[in-house]
């Protein structure tokens, strides 16, 4: 059984885990960002845990295609007070950031996982996390959020994403990061067309075979829109189906907006596959 070292937690991955998205942003694509309303964010986090979330992922900067960067101070002001409020809870707190200063402060405030869409490539990012106990989510992205969807191209998307993740895992290992802290994420929607996303989805078993737990985030994304034709608020069913398919193909953590709906689907999956509930 895979066990993820995750701050003061040891997350057993014998069954799929739900990571709930709590965005403290004014502009997240999903439309459910909470800006800097700390109490509303704590209520959202509590509701997610009550609905069955196993982890909470706090984001202080939207990375939707075309998003505007936020300053380090602004991101710290959005994220750190919330991490402080949630750090003592019974579930690990993850922070979604690519800024080393936000990583450091998040860890100081009690975060157990750093989720970096930039795969710890920023100067100082590995230094910021190396000596902690935190889990690290290593995600693939082509380009950067502002322009990444303009014309993404690959010769072989699956091979290139796998190779990128290998290189980043090696960079972390070279710095002494233990393999039991690492999660891999193909990065759905980050510099990828629908065809690229589908190719990666179909090849998820090749990511799972790398022997690191795989995290998948497709919740409410444009991939779901392209398939279903639904507006963002109406993508729950498509997102739940995608989460289920990801788990079926071996993903161990799914990052979602709609916790209760996804939890129900996973309960059915677990009952049918006889995985412990
Ligand atoms: N997707 C988003 C943000 N962070 N992290 C990982 N590991 N994997 C993902 O697929 C991923 C991620 C984008 O979704 P969201 O946070 O809902 O939107 P926004 O960036 O607009 O706040």
Give me the number of helical elements: 10
What is the correct CATH architecture?
Alpha-Beta Barrel
Low-confidence stretches: none
Number of domains: 1
| Straight-line N-to-C gap | 15 Å
| Principal-axis shape | globular
Name the hetero compounds present. Answer: 6-hydroxymethylpterin-diphosphate
Query: CATH fold name, please?
Result: TIM Barrel
How much of the sequence is in beta strands? 15-25%
CATH class: Alpha Beta
| Average pLDDT figure | 95
CATH superfamily: Dihydropteroate synthase-like
The helix/strand class is alpha/beta
Strand order of the largest sheet: 8-7-6-5-4-3-10-9
Number-wise, the strands total: 10
Largest sheet: 8 strands, parallel
Query: What is the succession of H and E elements?
Result: EEEHEHEHEHEHEHHEHHEH
Keywords for this entry:
277 residues, alpha/beta, TIM Barrel, eight-stranded parallel sheet, two-stranded antiparallel ribbon, 10 helices, 10 strands, 40% helix, binds 6-hydroxymethylpterin-diphosphate
Q: What report would you give on this structure?
A:
The protein has 277 residues and is of the alpha/beta class. It has a single domain (3-273), classed as TIM Barrel (Alpha-Beta Barrel). Helix content is 40%, strand content 16%. The chain has ten helices and ten strands. It has helices spanning 38-50, 72-86, 100-109, 125-130, 157-174, 194-202, 204-208, 222-228, 236-248, 259-273, and strands at 3-6, 9-12, 17-23, 55-59, 93-96, 113-116, 135-139, 182-185, 215-216, 253-256. The strands form two sheets. The chain has an eight-stranded parallel sheet. Helix 2 (72-86) runs parallel beside helix 3 (100-109) and helix 9 runs parallel beside helix 10 (259-273). 49% of the residues are buried. The mean pLDDT is 95.
């Amino acid at each position: 059984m895979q066990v993820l070292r995750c701050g003061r937690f040891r997350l057993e991955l014998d069954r799929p885990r739900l990571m709930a998205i709590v965005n403290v942003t004014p502009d997240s694509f999903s439309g459910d960002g909470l800006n800097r309303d700390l109490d509303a964010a704590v209520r959202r986090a509590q509701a997610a845990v009550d609905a069955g979330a196993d982890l909470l992922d706090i984001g202080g900067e939207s990375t939707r295609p075309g998003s505007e960067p936020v300053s380090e101070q602004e991101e710290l002001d959005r994220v750190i007070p919330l991490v402080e409020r949630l750090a003592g809870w019974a579930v690990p707190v993850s922070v979604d950031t690519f800024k080393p200063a936000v990583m450091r402060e998040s860890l100081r405030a009690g975060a157990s996982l750093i989720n970096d869409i930039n795969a710890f490539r920023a100067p100082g990012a590995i230094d910021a996390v190396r000596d902690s106990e935190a889990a690290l989510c290593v995600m693939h992205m082509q380009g950067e959020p502002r322009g990444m969807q303009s014309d993404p191209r690959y010769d072989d998307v699956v091979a290139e994403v796998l190779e990128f993740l290998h290189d980043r895992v090696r960079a972390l290992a070279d710095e002494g990061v233990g393999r039991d802290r690492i999660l891999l994420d193909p990065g759905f929607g980050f510099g990828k067309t629908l065809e690229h996303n589908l190719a990666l989805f179909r090849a998820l078993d090749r990511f799972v075979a790398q022997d690191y737990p795989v995290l998948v985030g497709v919740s409410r994304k444009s991939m779901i829109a392209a398939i279903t034709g639904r507006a963002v608020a109406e993508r729950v069913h498509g997102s739940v189906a995608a989460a289920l398919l990801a788990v079926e193909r071996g993903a161990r953590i799914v990052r979602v907006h709609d916790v209760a709906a996804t939890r129900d689907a996973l309960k059915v999956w677990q009952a049918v596959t006889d995985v412990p509930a």
